[in-house]
Design brief:
This protein is α/β, with parallel strands linked by helices. The protein has 17 helices and ten strands. Strand 6 (201-206), helix 9 (208-220) and strand 7 (224-230) form a beta-alpha-beta unit. Helix 3 (57-67) packs parallel to helix 6 (128-142) and helix 7 packs antiparallel against helix 8 (172-197). The strands form three sheets. The chain has a five-stranded parallel β-sheet, with helices on both faces. Strands 4-3-5 form a three-stranded parallel β-sheet. The longest helix is centred in the middle third of the chain and has 26 residues, at 172-197.
């Protein structure tokens, strides 16, 4: 191991095999931290140790809280931590209306960005699976309040999110003025989009909280959205606060989702789910599902920038994206007439995508 003059920290992550063998990464990390004079952080992110399936988000964030975050913070009353995985920074222009600055972490953040998290006025997170541990730790150990509000999707979510940030940072008047301006600006444009999108039916297949937010926006656009496939469900968040119940917020403000499934994105199951509702388009997070949709004649929008639908402009952005993909629907319909699905007729005739889980004996009979 070596370091250079510009190295400020080193992270040592584990695998399942590392833990099984029993490698002493804590001892090695401590030894090299003393030699190099910089933080060397062991991250115990083996899949069977993390409570977040195999991602290790919580374990990784524990290391950051333990050895990077500044212990004696000098508070910056205009700084807001934004914790997310990736995506464009739509938060800086939004929160600038409240005279707030954004500290966007964790991916691509500098060591200083991570260190100053304890100095922020508050923390907001997206997808509670990947942000809630860090946000809860900052609140419990450093007094940085986590914003406990719905995520900023659609008018209901964005209004509530802005208001809570305004309340926590003592900027209520600026928040209300910003909300009023954005409503006046966005609503006429939204009405024009609704006319163009009228009659469309959508399907959302993403992570849980992200799916809930996207459905909220689709319903703001008056697009019929009666089905969704989420890849996991998190009924309890680290804060334990019901205001972070994104599914509850969706149902309360935009109604129920009749065909709502939780599954780990198996393509053979995805086929039957789509056959239930026959959508005009699909919003997906993982590109692996797009080819199957195309084989069925359904265009899909892989949302590489996960913030496309965030905030007031997010409703307009998502509407324009949908118009772009449905404009190519003829291509996908032509493709579907010249390809075959890799499944037996027996499976294609099944109406229940989870029948093999309910009746395992069918596998032997096939």
């Amino acid at each position: 191991m070596y370091t250079t003059a510009i190295t400020q920290a080193i992270f040592v992550s584990t695998s399942c095999a590392t833990a099984i063998i029993g490698d002493d990464i804590d001892g090695v990390s401590s030894e090299y931290e003393e030699k190099l004079g910089i933080p060397v952080i062991p991250l115990h992110c083996e899949g069977f140790k993390s409570k977040h399936w195999s991602t290790g988000f919580d374990s990784t964030q524990h290391g950051i809280l333990r050895q990077i975050v500044r212990r004696n913070p000098k508070k910056q009353e205009d700084l807001v931590n934004v914790i997310n995985l990736w995506g464009s920074d739509v938060f800086t222009p939004m929160l600038a209306n409240l005279n707030l600055r954004v500290n966007y972490v964790v991916d691509l953040a500098t060591v200083e960005d991570l260190a100053q998290m304890s100095e922020a006025a508050c923390t907001v997170g997206f997808c509670y699976t990947l942000s809630s541990y860090l946000a809860a730790g900052l609140e419990q150990h450093f007094g940085v309040p986590e914003i406990k509000a719905p995520q900023p999707y659609g008018f209901a979510g964005t209004d509530a999110w802005i208001r809570e940030i305004g309340r926590v940072t003592n900027r209520e008047e600026l928040a209300e003025a910003y909300i009023a301006r954005e409503h006046a600006r966005v609503k006429p444009k939204l009405e024009e989009l609704k006319k163009k999108l009228k009659g469309l039916k959508g399907f959302v297949a993403t992570g849980s909280a992200y799916s809930h937010g996207l459905i909220s926006v689709l319903r703001e656009l008056e697009i019929e959205t009666n089905a969704s496939l989420v890849f996991h469900h998190d009924p309890i968040y680290d804060s334990g606060d019901p205001r972070q119940d994104s599914l509850g917020h969706l149902i309360e403000n935009y109604g129920d989702v009749p065909s709502f499934s939780v599954s780990n994105r198996q393509q053979y199951q995805f086929y039957a789910l789509l056959q239930r509702t026959h959508p005009d388009f699909i919003l997906i997070r993982h590109n692996g599902l797009a080819p199957l949709a195309s084989r069925l004649g359904i265009p899909a929008a892989p949302l590489g920038d996960e913030h496309i639908a965030v905030g007031y402009d997010g409703m307009l952005n998502l509407g324009e994206t949908i118009l772009d993909i449905v404009a190519h629907k003829k291509f996908h319909e032509d493709l579907s007439r010249h390809v075959k699905l890799p499944y037996k007729k027996w499976w294609l005739d099944q109406e229940d995508p989870y029948i093999l889980a309910k009746e395992p004996s069918l596998i032997e009979a096939i």
